[in-house]
Write a structure and sequence with these properties.
Length: 299
């Protein structure tokens, strides 16, 4: 399947991951862990996921002028992600995520935003000038101004907008009025709407945007809700879980890649659920992210 261009606007982090027997309780220290360092940031992960499925991907983001930033850009380039529009900010650290993962693959994450917090709307507008992507994939690990600029410029270019509202926070009317496909997980859908039932939350969100909503449900797969009230539940792929870190990013990147290739939202979501499941088989946000041939073998 030939894919159109995917432009991802958002974050780049270095992930410092400690694997332990169990997650610590508040105030508790758990010893005996193993440390690993990986490329991360939700948007950078999503860009890698889309590139591995054959999409032409460009990332609009910011890193520091430190070693972590240089390493992050080199890793993204090796994955085939275009980094021409990733700014290197002098005197600013690259974002860092501190991740603790237990034996069941569950995790806790704390993020120091660093350069991600400095990405501005003007930089995003310049990056999209004269560009005609098929899909613009937006994340919220950057300031609202950057996400808003990406949404407005993407809509003006005729791109399909996909907004992953993570971490969840109130969404601007200027963005929602453009009708993006929202892709919250169940917890984020609850935060955005106050509705504990994912389907009720999805319906509330479709009512606001007039566009489809996809709620990811972890081990239960995903829910695709259409504005006309129809909803489809897509079961998860059974896998032996090593680490759930980045599963949502694998989903969003795969969804964007398939939409850019012309797939329907329902078909794109089915493939994305498979990609998310496969991504859980290895430790690290990107290590298990599949390529096209992996998906073919698993389906």
């Amino acid at each position: 399947m030939t894919s159109g261009r995917v432009l991802v606007v958002g974050s780049v982090n270095a992930d410092l991951v400690v694997s332990v027997g169990r997650l610590p309780a508040p105030g508790e220290t758990v010893t005996g862990g193993r440390l690993a360092r990986h490329g991360g940031g939700k948007s950078a992960n999503q860009a890698v996921a889309a590139a591995r499925l054959g999409a032409a991907v460009e990332l609009v983001a910011a890193v520091g002028d430190d070693d972590l930033g240089a390493e992050a850009l080199a890793e993204l380039e090796r994955e085939g992600v275009g980094v021409e529009h990733v700014a290197r900010l002098a005197g600013t650290p690259t974002g860092v995520a501190l991740i603790v993962v237990d034996e069941a693959g569950e995790n806790q994450i704390a993020v120091a935003s660093g350069a991600n917090a400095e990405l501005g709307g003007a930089e995003v507008e310049r990056a999209l000038a004269g560009v005609a992507p098929a899909v613009v994939l937006l994340g919220l690990e950057v300031p609202d101004a950057a996400a808003r600029a990406g949404a407005l410029a993407g809509a003006a270019a005729g791109a399909r907008l996909v907004l992953n509202p993570a971490p969840a926070r109130p969404l601007e009317d200027a963005v929602l009025d453009l009708g993006p496909v929202l892709t919250p997980n169940a917890a984020e859908a609850l935060t955005l709407t106050g509705a504990p039932d994912p389907e009720a939350a999805a319906r509330a969100l479709t009512g606001r945007t007039g566009a489809p909503v996809v709620v990811t449900l972890g081990a239960e797969g995903a829910l695709v809700a259409e504005p006309d009230g129809d909803a489809e539940r897509i079961p998860a792929l059974p896998v032996d879980v090593a680490d759930t870190t980045g599963a949502g990013d694998a989903f969003n990147g795969a969804l964007a890649a398939e939409l850019a290739a012309g797939a329907s939202l329902a078909d794109a979501a089915r493939l994305a659920v498979t990609a998310a499941g496969l991504s859980c088989r290895a430790a690290g946000a990107r290590a298990g992210m599949p390529r096209r041939e992996d998906l073919a073998a698993a389906r």
